[in-house]
Amino acid sequence: MGQAQSAMCCGTGARREAPERRPDVEPKSTWLQPPVKPDLERHFGPGVTWLVRSDKLVATGFPVGSVAKKLGVAQGDILKAVDGLDCLHLQGSPEMGEHPVLDLLRGSYGTHCKLTVLRVSEAAGEQPQLTEVDVVVPRIIPLPTPKPQ
C-alpha cells in the first residue's frame, strides 16, 4: 500500500489524512494536493527599490506611485531597521535570490512601517558623516507574489 497523504477537507480549510490508495479498487484515482495560496494580505510594500550590496539593502529607486521619497527615504540610504528590528546583521541567500529583510517590508495595504536608514552626508572639505534617519512609510505599492518554499 502507498503512503497516506494530506488533503483538504470539503473546502473548510481543515486538513485530514487522505486514505491510502487502493489500486485494485481505484485504479485511476489520484489524490490532488490543493495549490498553496499566497498570503494575499501581505502583497504590499513601502515603495522602495532595494539593491543588496554586501548583505545590506541600499535604496536605489522608487516605483511610480511611491511616496517613500517624499516622506524622506533617499537614494543611497542603507536600511538599518524595519519597525525597530535590526536588519544590518541579516544575510541574504544568493541561491534563493532574496534577502530575509524583504519579508519584513511586506504587509497589508495601507499599513505603515517604520524604516530606519543610514545616510552618508558629505560636506565640502569634511569627513563623511553617517546619519540615522527614521521614516514612516505606508505600504501601498503592490509586490510580486513570493515564491512557494
Brief descriptors of the model:
two-stranded antiparallel ribbon; single chain; 149 residues; mainly beta; 2 helices
Element pattern in H and E = EEEEEHEEHEEE
Let me know the number of strands: 10
The parts where pLDDT drops under 50 for at least 5 residues are: 1-16, 29-39
Oligomeric category: single chain
Intertermini distance: 29 Å
Mean pLDDT: 75
Identify the overall geometry. globular
Individual helix count: 2
Strand-residue fraction? Answer: 25-35%
The share of residues in helices is under 10%
Strand order of the largest sheet: 7-6-8-9
Major sheet: size, sense and barrel closure? 4 strands, antiparallel
Backbone structural class: mainly beta
Radius of gyration, in Å, reads 23 Å
Descriptive report:
The structure is a single chain. The chain is built from two helices and ten strands; from the N terminus they run βββββαββαβββ. The longest helix is centred in the last third of the chain and has 5 residues. Helices cover 6% and strands 35% of the residues. A hairpin with a 7-residue loop joins strand 8 and strand 9. It has 149 residues and is mainly β.
Overview in brief:
The protein is mainly beta and 149 residues long. It has helices at residues 68-71, 101-105, and strands at 5-9, 14-18, 44-45, 49-53, 56-61, 78-82, 85-86, 112-121, 129-138, 141-142.
